[in-house]
Amino acid sequence: MARLPITKTPKVYVGGAFIRSESARVFPLRDAAGDFFANIPQCTRKDLRNAVEAAAKAGPGWAKRTAYNRGQILYRLAEMIEARAGEMAAAITLGGTTPSAAAREVAAAVDRLIYYAGWTDKYEQVLGNVNPVAAPYFNFTVTEPMGIIGVIAPDEAPLLALISLIAPAITSGNTVVALASTTQPYPAILLGEMLATSDLPGGVVNLLTGFRAEMIPTFATHTHLRAISAVVNAAERKALALGAAESVKRTILLKAEEKRDWFASALQGVDAIRDTVEFKTTWHPVGA
Amino acid sequence: MPTASVVKKSSRAPQRVANRVGRRAPELIFGDLWAFDPAPESADPKLKPRYDLFINGKFVAPKGGKYFDSINPANERKLTEIALAGPGDVDAAYAAAQRAADGVWGKMPGRERAKYLYRIARLLQDRAREFAVAETLDGGKPIKESRDFDVPMAAAHFFYHAGWADKLDYVAPGRRVAPLGVVGQVIPWNFPLLMCAWKLAPAIAMGNTVVLKPAETTSITALKLAEIIQDAGLPPGVVNFVTGAGDVGAAVLNHPTPAKIAFTGSTEVGKIIMRSLAGSDKKMTMELGGKAANIIFDDAPLDQAVEGIVNGIFFNQGHVCCAGSRLLVQEGIADKVLAKLKARIRTLRVGDPLDKNTDIGAINSRAQLTKIRALVAAGVKEGCAMFQPECALPPKGFYFRPTIFSGVSMSSRVAREEIFGPVLSILTFRTVDEAIEKANNTAYGLSAGVWTDKGSRILKLSTELKAGVVWANTYNKFDPASPFGGYKESGFGREGGRQGLLDYCKLI
User: Fold this and answer.
1) Domains in chain B, please, with CATH?
2) What Rg, from alpha-carbon coordinates, does chain A have?
3) Domain A12-285 - what CATH class?
4) Global pTM?
5) Is A278 in contact with B483 (Cβ distance < 8 A)?
6) Identity of the residue in B275, B482, B488 whose CB atom sits nearest the CB atom of A242
């Protein structure tokens, strides 16, 4: 008799732990053929708030890591994905992507992480500078991470787009609470397992699955989220911008209705890191 | 700054002895005892009896034909009248700006754009004293500040940004930049000409064109700058000024034409603007309010620190978004600092802004005076100990004595709300961590000051303080090369430096 395989219960990765939604709700995920695959946690606003709390706890420690250390950890995350590339590609094909396209997406996601791993100890030299003020002061501008960044991933490119939004934020020491693709959440479930073995401290990246309509109001108004980096439609952009006004939150809102090539190198860069840092200028007197 | 001083005659010990260690220095007495002769600045501000809108390179009457009075807050007398823009005028300004962006300015080589900015800087330097007097008459700030700070710094901003216009390839490494197109800007009344320069210079250096609305109480120097813009031969429509109150500002900000909005003002209004622009594709920068902590450690050079505290809160009557309005003093030196501060504040001269000896001029408007009075009354009601020096105030005009509150708690309104007046709230702390916690315990995050003799402590504080600008052993220093802007509810985007230019371009 053939052995019945053990299927995995998908859990989201929050605060370094694998959890179900506090609501105990799930939604069924079907593969491209329409067959039942697994139940995915349908996270709630409360899950989002809990994730923000986890991100807040992890934030100061992550920001204080040396840039060299952050770079090695991002590199380690890439290693973890590369080692399980086949499994991740299979997760992507659930959404109907061809195996070769899925393999390309995994490779591109790994390369993107390597790209940002290399930036951790360099972006400061590009974004910050010493300012030649007309007075006897040593005046310098450096960057600092904003804090907790809310990420809302698009439905397409469920791994590559998610990585492309998360990586530049954590490169500079931010922590992230991300909502994965609603239609293709499984790659994010797997990514959580890779994050857990990557040396990235728990709580630095928190991944939620569920429905945007339920979560966007809380993403918009949660005052501890200092910025939102999202691929969203017109109504969602308006909701996020309205909520952002309440606490002067920064928003980086890409249009969901515009097609973009997530593989393009134009979608990575030091300017993406700049989107989630603050500039701080210090005046220090020069004298005896 | 008063230079003369006398030692109290009745003091028994001669000054030499009193200066010995362990003996308190005798108190210096100023006020009425030592009368200064008036020293009014007499340069002609060359005000016109009426100012029209500046659209498409010309002064034009508002379509509605209405004007409003601009008064001198120092004596409440009318200075001139200013055109009241209507929606049709705002449309015309944006149409001119769009034509200039498409037709001339956006295409012009950077090196040529640069020359216009250099010209504006030079022409402003030529007429510096005239502008300083006009600024002081219109806004109430002491002439020594408009003369030595506002006007030269405005010219410096044009000069600095001029040089960027042909070097934009160095602004965003790895990327090329392009102008956004038309920009709408609304500025406040605390540094009318300087804010105008902060907003215009980076925008037009980058190749954008501008519709700018000055504050309704302080439109004069913007319109005088329009004369310089004409003299400089700047192509028509590159810079347009529309004047009026909040409704005109709303029309400027909500107009469909601009690709970007830049606002400097209160956090309250900033949030209203953010809400009104929600769902639009407009880029924004917001330079909003603050409630800065000025932190004095027990190893700080105290006399220097006291000067810094005074400059931090009483500069420009405290109408400064980055004013050091919360003084955090280490507990062991709190009494000493308070005593020194009281003695120093007694020597501040409050009065005629045009007098070269004046330290604190007129409050910008009756509305602002009312707001300051209400918040100070709240501080008294909450039980904070208030100190104001005895000093005679002019009979007419809007004046407020320099005020310090001691024994203030973190929850007090005078420690949490932006007063935007000459009012200092003093709190104490014991440890470095407590200072950081208290300094950061605010919705704002624009600036902070640190006074200590220890370099490593300065760098620790500057790392931990959630503020866009940190001044160490100094306060209220500005420079066109130095980016300025806030964290948290003090806004986003930077003005000045390379970082400031990034907010006026798109990456291509």
Assistant:
1) 1-35 (no CATH), 50-288+487-507 (3.40.605.10), 290-472 (3.40.309.10)
2) 20
3) alpha beta
4) 0.94
5) no
6) B275
